[in-house]
Amino acid sequence: MGKSINVSLIGNPNTGKTSLFNRLTGLNQKVGNYPGITVEKKEGICKLDRSLKAHILDLPGTYSLNTSSLDESVVVETLLNKNSKDYPDVAVVVSDIENLKRNLLLFTQIKDLEIPTILVINMADRMQRKAISLDIELMEQELNTRVVLVSARKNIGVDDLKKAISEYKNLKSVPCVNASTIDPEYFETLRKAYPKQSIYKLWLVITQDVNFGKIDRNRDLEDLKSSSFAVKSESDLKKMQHKETVVRYQFINSLLTKVLNVDKSQAKDLRTRLDRVLLHKVWGYLIFFVILLLIFQAIYDWSTYPMDWIDTFFAKASSWAQTSLPEGPFTDLISEGIIPGLGGIVIFIPQIAFLFLFIAILEESGYMSRVVFLMDHIMKKFGLSGKSVVPLVSGTACAIPAVMATRNIEDWKERLITILVVPFTTCSARLPVYLIIIALVIPEQEVWWIFNMQGLTLMLLYMLGFGAAIFSAWVLNKILPIKRKAFFVMEMPAYKLPMLKNVGITVLEKTKSFVLGAGKIIMAISVILWLLASHGIGEQFTNAEEIVKEQYASQNLSEEELTNKIASQQLEHSFIGYIGKGIEPAVRPLGYDWKIGIAIVSSFAAREVFVGTLATIYSVGSDEEETIKNRMRAEVNPILGGPLFNFASGISLLLFYAFAMQCMSTLAIVKRETNSWKWPAIQFTAMTVIAYFAALAAYQILK
Amino acid sequence: MSDTIAHLKRGEQATIVSFNEEQVPLKLLEMGCLPGNVVMMMESAPFQDPIYLNINGTYLAIRRETAQQIIVKRHG
């Protein structure tokens, strides 16, 4: 085995850093989290030559080393902590030819940390079209570094980069900007106190917390913060950082006048023309709306085909296991617990893959920033920003991919709020429940000529979900005691054709992280729910078959009817049946009986289970909607008499399903994305309480 | 009253004169929003918020309240 070195890829967002990472590592990469936080950690292996391997870390995109977000602080932490196992032997700073000036700011900062640094200039294939010329040799001299021109998109120069990395020992680690000129006296005392440290490193440690809240991590310079050097007030430090930025730009400007030549007369780009249309006050919104419809259609409609196949496949696998394996509790566990549990995970894959396919394309093409731009003003009023729009809209298909889509939101508070409110939006699993209850309690009547009462009710429910999400975002923004950066600065990247490789890898990674992350929890809860529904104690459960046979002995039932009656008897006396009866006093004020209680409890696995559970309880035996509907219509309220499903209890149920957090898969993914059980627990409790009281009020007023 | 970025019309260029250091985030400076640099108004969303600019070659969007803090001199 050869030697392995650590390489960190660092760069501004939108420089094609991830494309380059994908070029270097291919599928030889893994995505995880930094310990204790939810920032994505991407690492991979690249073989440089026969004896040397590079362990490549793709650090989150950042504009500078002055941290203002969790992502950026990860970059700084990695570069400051020499003891960390990720500390780079070489830092590769990725810049793009069109934004060289701004990209170099970060480069000068990293160079000043005295880490061996290579400057990569990406998108070099655009140089000719943009009439840009660059004196690489002079640039290498002035910056004291290696400069490599690449095009990750066209796969040009990647081998040169590998070669440059493998020659990392020749890199000079000398600073290029003397930051101490901003306050020579202060820096001189600092240097005397810590003669062994790089001066810029000391400065970074001191200023790290100015723009961003403190994060506790082991650091060899922890004493510095409490020392006399931190006496400068926060606003003084801020002013010095401003000065530092000015000094760095002076250096960069004088460098670029020497090495860079742009013929502006030739630079007429696509951007202006496209933005005229895509950001137009009317067309812009219309186009966005059409794109949303398309995404919605894909998640909602196109994915039903693969979902049906998955459904059929797992149903077949389950019955195969039941018939082919020896009879016994273990076979039941496999065929009724584990296989459906697995199915419950795999069934979401098409929706997740579709959503991330679209998101990756929008992101890669540069359009996503335009969406944020268009929607920011409206969302700002509710404490969110334009970045929350896509998750909230995706939530109407399924909350799981929607929660995962919040990763694009940098601000933690905003992201958390979005995650917490997304499950209010009407997801597709609520639809079967809505449809059957609406059909039962809302008259099929035309209003204002063209509208149908039932259709209107459904639309109102969608609006209710969205309204609840927006309103709770507003409330959460007021009450959550999390500091947020109060400003909004967003780069508007150039339009690009999405790269198939990047899109593919994103879809693959997101799907994988769902299956491995949330999948385990979904699996566990499915098995528990199955255990509760299929086991019970007492004669009523164990002798269900004889009891039913005896009871209906005179009625001459068919084989199928008998099986259904037995299943119903067993469910009634299973643990879940007892739970249903146990909660009956709690749900009676909402207008439900214990049977609906059971359906609600089992709905916590997934809402759509509601219909199936009622089918089992009413021993209908099939999921045929008409049959269940007729059976439900005939059900009588045990206390008040009259139909159980009337207008009052129907509205109450609709409201309950609109607000309640009845989806363990979503809870599992929220746990994964927030890295704690605290937030899913709060979300579950709050939503269930809201649902309960909304349903209670509705029933009590309407009955 | 001097002009701020928020006063610019679409396509109009100006030179950044000064800004309130407390109100303007460091991030904006890092993106090249420094006195002496040229800014051009690209587009604005309805209600002039947010505003889409080209500052010193970088394309970015900022909210109206930030744009109002940055004093500029219009190019005649």
Automatic annotation (TrEMBL), chain A:
<feature type="binding site">
    <location>
        <begin position="122"/>
        <end position="125"/>
    </location>
    <ligand>
        <name>GTP</name>
    </ligand>
</feature>
<dbReference type="GO" id="GO:0005525">
    <property type="term" value="F:GTP binding"/>
</dbReference>
<feature type="binding site">
    <location>
        <position position="25"/>
    </location>
    <ligand>
        <name>Mg(2+) 2</name>
    </ligand>
</feature>
<keyword id="KW-0812">Transmembrane</keyword>
<feature type="transmembrane region" description="Helical">
    <location>
        <begin position="282"/>
        <end position="300"/>
    </location>
</feature>
<feature type="binding site">
    <location>
        <position position="22"/>
    </location>
    <ligand>
        <name>Mg(2+) 1</name>
    </ligand>
</feature>
<feature type="transmembrane region" description="Helical">
    <location>
        <begin position="338"/>
        <end position="362"/>
    </location>
</feature>
<feature type="binding site">
    <location>
        <position position="26"/>
    </location>
    <ligand>
        <name>Mg(2+) 2</name>
    </ligand>
</feature>
<keyword id="KW-0472">Membrane</keyword>
<keyword id="KW-1003">Cell membrane</keyword>
<dbReference type="InterPro" id="IPR030389">
    <property type="entry name" value="G_FEOB_dom"/>
</dbReference>
<dbReference type="InterPro" id="IPR011642">
    <property type="entry name" value="Gate_dom"/>
</dbReference>
<dbReference type="Pfam" id="PF02421">
    <property type="entry name" value="FeoB_N"/>
</dbReference>
<protein>
    <recommendedName>
        <fullName>Ferrous iron transport protein B</fullName>
    </recommendedName>
</protein>
<dbReference type="Pfam" id="PF07670">
    <property type="entry name" value="Gate"/>
</dbReference>
<keyword id="KW-0410">Iron transport</keyword>
<dbReference type="InterPro" id="IPR006073">
    <property type="entry name" value="GTP-bd"/>
</dbReference>
<dbReference type="Pfam" id="PF07664">
    <property type="entry name" value="FeoB_C"/>
</dbReference>
<keyword id="KW-0342">GTP-binding</keyword>
<comment type="similarity">
    <text>Belongs to the TRAFAC class TrmE-Era-EngA-EngB-Septin-like GTPase superfamily. FeoB GTPase (TC 9.A.8) family.</text>
</comment>
<dbReference type="InterPro" id="IPR005225">
    <property type="entry name" value="Small_GTP-bd"/>
</dbReference>
<feature type="binding site">
    <location>
        <begin position="11"/>
        <end position="18"/>
    </location>
    <ligand>
        <name>GTP</name>
    </ligand>
</feature>
From TrEMBL, chain B:
<keyword id="KW-0408">Iron</keyword>
<dbReference type="InterPro" id="IPR052713">
    <property type="entry name" value="FeoA"/>
</dbReference>
<dbReference type="InterPro" id="IPR038157">
    <property type="entry name" value="FeoA_core_dom"/>
</dbReference>
<dbReference type="InterPro" id="IPR007167">
    <property type="entry name" value="Fe-transptr_FeoA-like"/>
</dbReference>
<dbReference type="Pfam" id="PF04023">
    <property type="entry name" value="FeoA"/>
</dbReference>
<feature type="domain" description="Ferrous iron transporter FeoA-like">
    <location>
        <begin position="3"/>
        <end position="74"/>
    </location>
</feature>
<protein>
    <submittedName>
        <fullName>Ferrous iron transport protein A</fullName>
    </submittedName>
</protein>
<dbReference type="InterPro" id="IPR008988">
    <property type="entry name" value="Transcriptional_repressor_C"/>
</dbReference>
<dbReference type="GO" id="GO:0046914">
    <property type="term" value="F:transition metal ion binding"/>
</dbReference>
